[in-house]
């Protein structure tokens, strides 16, 4: 009796002591590539905090010129200084990018294309989760707008540069949460019904569908694309939900650190010989299973066309190498 009571009292303490071991058990997957990146150019969106910051730091450590694409330039500059200090790499640059505004995305791309000859690694990492219903400058629902459409436009604008720099890679940071996602074409902007948690899941499903469609269309171009589930990571992502903040706080000893969360993005960006797996989804540095929805090519094509339409991009900007010509809708 006393023994059980003592054990119960000791349990939190024991858990606390064992937390580092438990965390490393739950967060397998380390990018072991030793590749160095002198002369390579990388862009990481949302690089001022969380997973993006750690991803950018490691790319800088390996000698790449790294662009931190951030909506808050001041926050970005602080992080750039920190990364420069820690890695000794001075080529860490901050550029303004607000994915909730297509004007900002176009301005970012324009400046980048003017000032850089190459782009070898594009990490579409920025993301929002569980925002109250809100819209981007262009009237898109926030999750769809930032997580999916914003990155779609950005990738579109930078694609020529990626092509010229091939072999090059695009990594899309998605989530396990895509399993709960559905693409409701009649309610893409959440106007008929909206639930913030599900809106996140839908946008993360869109990330995977896009990765696959892009991979199909880029076959043979020298650009390969990957989508990633970083794991459950202790970051600022939960900032919009008090409940999620609380859950994250309780489990904060056991979930991945941002540095651990960056491993799969880095794995996909750096591992040699990964090209044959273009279009796949990765978790813990392994190919991971995606939902049936995420494998549906019909949905992927339609979402591609609808996204082009919403963004005012010609639907045939990237035709499949040998595919038939298609018209909108
Ligand atoms: N944490 C997890 O457990 C988890 C799990 C699965 C997937 N993910 C994915 O991992 C990625 C990174 O998330 P994180 O966990 O590192 O979250 P985070 O700490 O909240 O970082 C998100 C980043 O995105 C930026 N961002 C948000 N809205 C933006 C906009 N409109 N324009 C430009 N940048 C914007 C944020 O900038 P500000 O600081 O200025 O807001 C921040 O730099 C996300 O795509 C997320 O969906 C995370
Ligand atoms: C992800 O993948 C494709 C190919 O890179 C791209 O077109 C799309 O816009 C990217 N962004 C997201 C977050 O889906
Ligand atoms: C793909 O999705 C469409 C529309 O939701 C559905 O009608 C079709 O049966 C699905 N195809 C596959 C192969 O699951």
TrEMBL record:
Belongs to the short-chain dehydrogenases/reductases (SDR) family. Pfam families: adh_short. This is NADP-retinol dehydrogenase. One of its GO terms (biological process) is cellular detoxification of aldehyde. It catalyses: all-trans-retinol + NADP(+) = all-trans-retinal + NADPH + H(+). One of its GO terms (molecular function) is all-trans-retinol dehydrogenase (NADP+) activity. Pathway: Cofactor metabolism; retinol metabolism. Its EC number is 1.1.1.300. One of its GO terms (cellular component) is photoreceptor inner segment. Residues 1-19 form the signal peptide. It comes from Capra hircus. The lineage of its organism: Eukaryota, Metazoa, Chordata, Craniata, Vertebrata. Keywords: Lipid metabolism, NADP, Oxidoreductase, Signal.
């Amino acid at each position: 009796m006393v023994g059980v009571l003592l054990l119960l009292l000791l349990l939190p303490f024991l858990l606390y002591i064992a937390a580092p071991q438990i965390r490393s058990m739950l967060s397998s997957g380390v990018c072991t590539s030793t590749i160095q990146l002198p002369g390579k150019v990388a862009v990481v969106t949302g690089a001022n905090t969380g997973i993006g910051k750690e991803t950018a730091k490691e790319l800088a450590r390996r000698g790449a010129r790294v662009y931190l694409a951030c909506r808050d330039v001041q926050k970005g500059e602080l992080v750039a200084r920190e990364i420069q200090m820690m890695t000794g790499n001075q080529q860490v640059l901050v550029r303004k990018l607000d994915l909730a505004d297509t004007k900002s995305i176009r301005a970012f791309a324009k400046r980048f294309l003017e000032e850089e000859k190459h782009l070898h690694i594009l990490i579409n990492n920025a993301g929002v989760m569980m925002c109250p219903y809100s819209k981007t400058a262009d009237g898109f629902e926030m999750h769809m707008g930032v997580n999916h459409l914003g990155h779609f436009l950005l990738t579109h604008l930078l694609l020529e540069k990626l092509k010229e720099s091939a072999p090059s890679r695009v990594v899309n940071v998605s989530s396990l949460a895509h399993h709960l996602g559905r693409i409701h074409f009649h309610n893409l902007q959440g106007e008929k019904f909206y639930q913030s948690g599900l809106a996140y899941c839908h946008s993360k499903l869109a990330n995977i569908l896009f990765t696959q469609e892009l991979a199909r269309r880029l076959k043979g171009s020298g650009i390969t694309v990957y989508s990633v589930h970083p794991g459950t990571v202790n970051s600022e992502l939960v900032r919009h939900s008090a409940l999620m903040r609380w859950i994250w706080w309780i489990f904060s000893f056991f979930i991945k650190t941002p540095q651990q969360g960056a491993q799969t993005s880095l794995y996909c960006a750096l591992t040699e010989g990964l090209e044959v797996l273009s279009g796949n989804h990765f978790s813990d540095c392994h190919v991971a299973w995606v939902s049936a929805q995420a494998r549906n090519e019909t949905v992927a094509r339609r979402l591609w066309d609808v996204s082009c339409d919403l963004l005012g991009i010609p639907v045939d900007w990237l035709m499949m190498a040998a595919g038939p010509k298609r018209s909108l809708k």
